Amino acid sequence: MSERFRAMACSDKCFRSFGIAALVLCWFSCGMFLIYPVFLLHKPAHRCRPLFNSSEKQADLAHQQKNGTSENWQNNSSCYEHSPHRNVSETCSLGWVYEMPEGHHTVVTEFDLVCDNDWLKPLVSTMLMGGMMLGSLVGGVLSDRFGRRPIFLAGVAGNLVCAILLALSYALPVIFIWVFAGGMFNIFRISSSVVLLQESAPNRHRSLLLLLQMSSFSTGSAILPVINYLFPDWRHTMYTMAFVSFCTCAPAVLVVPESQKWVATRNVNTKTTHDMPCESQTIVSSTKEKEPKNMNRKANKNPKFLMLFKRKFLFRRLLALVLAWTSSSFSFFAISYNTDHLGDNRYVSASLAAISEIVGDILLFFITRKIGYRYSYTLLTTFAGALIFTTPFVKYSNAKLGLALAICGKILVSASYSLVYVSTGDLVPTAVRNQVYGIVAFVSRMSLLSMPFFLYLGEKVYEPITYFVMTFMLIAAGLLYLILPETKGEKQPNSLYDAKQQERSRLNTQCKFGGSNENI
What we know:
The chain contains 20 helices and 4 strands. By secondary structure, it is mainly alpha-helical. Helix 9 crosses helix 16, helix 15 (312-337) runs parallel beside helix 18 and helix 15 packs antiparallel against helix 19 (464-480). 49% of the residues are buried.
């Protein structure tokens, strides 16, 4: 069946359009599986469960009436139980009472991740980021080796299975395992689907389609608060997310073919191309015609992965992209995971934060049309850093104004995050495109491992700490991004020579192009 689909994709533009639409739709559930810890790890107000029995309670009430006090067993602190009658203060030995409506359950309330076990709460988020980090590295290598489509299918199936097994788990270590595995498979499908869309979309519509994919991601994030509101038990929320994932990704499994650019790259040095799909034959022919005769021989002396480190211009781009991904992803998830502390209603705060991502994608579409990718990223990160820096100080005096600043900062951060997703594939050759996505995502996920603990540190010590870190990273990444060439409206580089040609659009760059290839 897949061979028939691939043949149709080469001859039937309508069928190819269905494949692109399916890739956009599949991202609807990707957003849910990246921010679900916001609701699964919600920590409501709590107090110690009363230690004494009903007779002791009556004696306690009599003691209060005699002494004219109003303190009773309900005034136990969140981590210590206290009885004025017995004059004792001890750790909660019988568990906690959580101030949540009946039927509402989270991982925190089910496993009592409060007080002495409070550190386990950010560890759950860290396991998700760890899975995403491993998936970024492994998925990129496997996708460039075995193809985009097989890794995409593995990501869809694996993420669905992990979501169901997570909902069926009744032990915290098992939850850690499935959260980690789910994060890995979700990144498999995210990274491979981005590259599939980039390499399948027409050049003139590529940026718009990628932004639509990002908007689909944001829409799924905005729907998640509604799902959790309708299904307040965290297990039911996971079942619903798995069902939505199946419905939105099933069309992509059926109609998305393999990337013809990847097929062409794998066969560019073969002597026969008659058994290749027609689009791949065209790509191979055009690539061989425009490259210098010694280009392929020189590029193939080194493994593809090492090419990124041995070519100075590629290594320079890789460094700038790593910092851009790290700053944007850290700030994006830090604001998303901190919505519990941005407003009184977590559903409203989370919905506003998710809707702001859609606004950010719309803003990005118009601003990149005017000034391109390079200046857009610097402008977005600079203003985002300024807004984020002022948010914690304003929030202390005016909570609503602080929420508004945080949402505005989230709009700009989301736009910058979408921009690096869109532009990364335009800066590297096809042969290493998915590996580059894997490398930059892997390094950025390393910073995300510490992100939950930065939020925990801000909660326990000094809240503005996390905001200061975000501000510094965003401004530094925005300045470094200026060294990259402008790729807005340009064709994606199929070869190392194409990527080198992009250096002409760098700021203050003096490069020689033409017959000499000694710098390539």
